[in-house]
Amino acid sequence: MNRLLLAAYPEPYRSRQGEEVLACLSEAYPGRSWPPPREVAALVRAGVQARARAVVDDTARPWWLDGIHLAALALAALALVPYLQDVWHWALHIDPGQHAIAFHFSGWYPWAEGPTRIRLLPYGLLPLGCLIALLRGRPWIALPAAAAMIWAGATSHGRTLFGDEGKAGLGYYGLGAPITARDLVLSGALCAACAALALCRPSRLRRRSYRWLAPVVLAMFVAGGLHIISVSPAFQRGLFVLEGAALIAAWVATAATGDHRWLIPVAAFAIVRMQAIVVRPDAFMQSFPDLVVLILLIAPLPALAIAAQRRQGQALAE
């Protein structure tokens, strides 16, 4: 199990020092397959810092381009989250029945039981396709998918391609109010980021392995295979923890490198989340106090800026 902790580190580090780290863990904690929680947290934190330094040391692209790319990935993932269950059921031809997320009708596809009104595709295929294209560094493929998200959200009523707007009612919202396909700020920001990336030389973009999709498949199984609906408090709190962990990881990376690229995805995330809260201030599930959520959205930006300035000051002093 100790080898799972090494996944937090970049591949060059694993090849050089991976066996040494495993040997040290075996000596320090003999007979244990997993170190204590404090040691796990320290190793993961060091791994995030090592990955961040490796990213900054790669001068093949400017920091702002990498930041826009990270922002587009974050927005595509955020847009996909409400439809994880839907895409899973569509791919496996499953009729979830009463376990479906909040749609205006329960007759989803031709194989579903119940009302005969159907839709041809799940809306979640658009952000999923956008996410995969961005992971592979192909923004010219992600851009049409993001534009189709805007079209689907703006012209949804009465259409059977994606249903009405893909999803009605409450959705997954973690650190903010629900974001559905009708909230065009998210899809518009994603489309703008994809357009900016497409205008640059695609060869300059970072290409990530398909292995990065493993967490997405796992999330689809959790939401679809276990029938955890979008308004489930368990999933809401899980998303809250996930988004909070991502913000902490951005802070750790910024504090370790003094680089500003992680400010861009955090700012994009905060703007989209806060816009949804302003538009629908009464849409919280009340799992968390509203003030706590707003502070968690606002606080990371100055925290990251201060961390970057402090790290740069330390580098100059050295």
Q: Outline, from the CA principal axes?
A: globular
Q: What is the H/E order?
A: HHHHHHHHHHHHH
Q: Alpha-carbon distance between the termini?
A: 38 Å
* Proportion in helices: 55-70%
- Secondary-structure class: mainly alpha
DSSP strand content: under 5%
Q: For the residues shown, what is the average pLDDT?
A: 79
Number of beta strands: 0
Keywords: Membrane, Transmembrane, Transmembrane helix
Transmembrane segments: 63-84, 118-135, 140-159, 179-200, 212-229, 235-255, 262-279, 291-308
Protein name: Integral membrane protein
Organism: Streptomyces canarius
In short:
The chain is mostly helical. It has 13 helices and no strands. It comes from Streptomyces canarius.
Keywords:
13 helices, mainly alpha, Integral membrane protein, transmembrane, 318 residues, transmembrane helix, membrane
Explain this structure to me?
By secondary structure, the protein is mainly alpha-helical. The longest helix has 25 residues. The protein starts with a helix and ends with a helix. The mean pLDDT is 79. Keywords: Membrane, Transmembrane, Transmembrane helix. It comes from Streptomyces canarius. This is Integral membrane protein.
Describe the SSE topology.
Layout: H1 2-6, H2 11-28, H3 37-57, H4 63-80, H5 84-92, H6 125-135, H7 139-154, H8 184-199, H9 214-225, H10 233-257, H11 263-279, H12 290-298, H13 300-317
Helix pairs in contact: 3-10, 4-6, 4-8, 4-11, 5-9, 6-7, 7-8, 10-13
